[in-house]
Amino acid sequence: MNQNYVTVTQLTKYIKYIIDNDIHLNNIYLKGEISNFKRHTRGHLYFTIKDENTRINAIMFVSNASRLKFEPMDGMKVLITGKVSVYESTGAYQIYVSDMVEDGVGNLYVAYEQLKKKLELEGLFDPAKKKKIPKIPKTIGIITAPTGAAIKDILSTIKRRWPIAKTILFPSLVQGAEASGDILRNIELSKNFDLDVLIIGRGGGSIEDLWCFNDEEVARAIYNLDVPVISAVGHEIDFTISDFVADLRAPTPTGAAEMAVPNMNDVISYLSQVEKRMLAGINNIITLKQKKLKSVMDSPIIRNPISIYEVKEQKFDNIYERLILGLRKIVDKNQYDLTLINNKLSNNIVSFLDSNKHDFEKILSKLEVLNPMLTLKRGYAIVKSDDKVIDKKSLLNKGDSITVEMQDGNFEAVVK
Predict the structure, then answer these.
(1) Three-state secondary structure call for residue 281
(2) Per-residue pLDDT reduced to its tens digit, 140-168
(3) Which are the contacts of 88, defined by CB distance < 8 A and separation ≥ 6?
(4) Contact predicate 208/82, CB 8 Å
(5) pTM of the model
(6) Which strands form 409-414's sheet, in the order they lie side by side?
């Protein structure tokens, strides 16, 4: 028997291996028409995709089918994203669908994904750059159609939750070729008002209906606003570029109003709790201060304030006594030193006088010899003229007045 024979299972597994490892078949874009559509009770979708010449079986599991924004049906032309693989039980190849959109809006979907990727790379979706929605807004701007369920839901919700808020409607087209330009004009107009938050949105619709909110200029205008923006476009399953660039995305217009304003009853309840906590805090402070005051009032010093003086007086007496004692010691010590110095000085003076007494007597004797009074005692006289001593006769003339000084006195005379 030829050993090269393989089983059907082995062949099927090999073919499946080849297809599963072909990168071109792992992510394929396919367009065609739906036929033999069937929704399983578990939510999976089974159908056939065909064109004029051939067909391929398709399956879309419930995890992906739940994201569809339309109801598939026979005869519908669609654009499919998925991967090709082999179902081993039958050996048939089929496409496992991950995404599906109606053909005709396929180009819009591709443009949407391209713009989304572009703006995301530029950082326009960065959560760190999102502005916070104020907790208590005073003025709320609304850009939407002036008629329809969206504006009614927004206004009724704000009035019910926070009736003191002021609302300013900027009526705008929200569908059609001119809607993007009208939205841009109203965004620019809103800058002239002192808004705390701006709601931009409309009710649900197809991708074509919501396309003005996928406009690049609208997206950049929303991103560049100084006021925080809440995007409320379509239903909860609808996502537009405006949702990603806005500071907050609401699933519905009603949800946007709920996010924009607080609930009056919640605020009143919160303020009541704050008031209770505040009063409790004040009472605690008063109680603590009263206890502290009572402690101070009960202190011995307050009850007998003179005791402070008495303690200080006693300390002062002790210091004063130590000061006097110290001064006395200083005086006594200096008095003793002074006595020693005085005695030493007296001894030095006596010694000095004694050592110089002989010289003094000799000098005194010499002075006695030279003393003119002693000469006068021996009978001599001193003759003066004009207070000058005359020691020669030639110095006198006849008729000159002279003074004669003798031992016992002076007298005047005239020369003859």
Answers:
(1) helix
(2) 999 999 998 999 999 999 999 999 999 99
(3) 9, 12, 13, 16
(4) no
(5) 0.50
(6) 388-389, 382-385, 401-406, 409-414
